[in-house]
Amino acid sequence: MTLTKAELADLLFEKVGLNKREAKDMVDAFYEEIRVALQSGDGVKLSGFGNFQLRDKPQRPGRNPKTGEEIPITARRVVTFRASQKLKAMVEKNHQGKRAG
Amino acid sequence: MTKSELISRLAGRYPQLVAKDAELAVKIILGAMVKSLLQGERIEIRGFGSFNLNCRPPRVGRNPKTGEKVKVPEKYIPHFKAGKELRERVDSKD
After folding, report:
1. Which chain A residues are within 8 Å of B78, Cβ to Cβ?
2. What is the ipTM of this complex?
3. Quick one: DSSP state of residue A40?
4. B84 touches chain A (CB under 8 A)
5. Phi, psi dihedral angles at B47 (to 5 degrees)
6. Does the distance separating the beta carbons of B51 and A79 come in below 8 Å?
7. Are residues A50 and A35 in contact, defined by beta-carbon separation less than 8 angstroms?
8. B20: which chain A residues are within 8 Å (Cβ-Cβ)?
9. Could you report the per-residue pLDDT of A20-73, keeping only the tens digit for each?
10. Using the beta-carbon criterion (under 8 Å), do A78 and B82 form an inter-chain contact?
11. Rounded to the nearest 5°, which phi and psi values hold at A24?
């Protein structure tokens, strides 16, 4: 199973009492606001979940793996995610529980 | 942007909703995402990205203070891969 926007919209419909359309819009808006912040160069910190940060990567040499041809990988800005200590600890604890059980 | 700023921006988009609803919605979305990761389930948001658990294999580490060998067990770390739209928008020069 995979969690997708459809499941999230269903949850908002059930638990917040939004109608189906509002629930879908709210889920879209949630991710859009994060994209807008990141696009404007602003990192996003969601306490208890994690941080989305931006990194500027310099140009570096690369290769086309098919042809072996050398092509530079251009300088670019990328998004990185770091899970919060809380989330990491929960994932770890959960995993250990499964291993023991 | 922090979680509370995200909540007020969402509330600003929907003047017909109570501000509490935006707060509740953010809490529910993040809660569901955490729950999925705890179950080892993937999260896939088209145009945003995907989250899953990456396995770090067990290794023998060292206590940097004493130089003593320590076994570090295998562990799982949440991992995010940005989707195409997010990747392109973040890297756009305008």
Report:
1. 50, 81, 83, 87-88, 91
2. 0.90
3. T
4. no
5. 85, -10
6. no
7. no
8. none
9. 999 999 999 999 999 999 999 999 999 999 999 999 999 999 999 999 899 999
10. yes
11. -65, -45
Q: Contact A16/B32, CB-based, under 8 Å?
A: no
Q: Would you tell me how many other CB atoms lie within 10 Å of the CB of residue A40?
A: 11
Axis-axis angle for helices A5-16, A20-39 (nearest 10):
120
In this model, does residue B88 exceed pLDDT 60? yes
Is the Cβ–Cβ distance between B62 and B70 less than 8 Å?
A: yes
Chain B CB contacts of A47 below 8 Å:
2-3
Q: Give the amino acid at B92.
A: S
Cα–Cα distance, A29 to A10 (Å, whole number): 15
- Tell me what pLDDT residue B14 has: 84
Q: Note the pTM of the prediction, 2 decimals.
A: 0.89
- The answer to whether A83 and B78 are in contact (CB under 8 A) is yes
- Per DSSP, which regions of B15-93 are E strands? 42-45, 49-56, 59-62, 69-72, 75-82
Contact (CB, 8 A) for B80 and B49: yes
Bridge partners (DSSP) of residue B78 are B53
Share of chain B above pLDDT 90, in %: 73
Show Cβ contacts of residue B12 under 8 Å, excluding neighbours closer than 6 positions: none
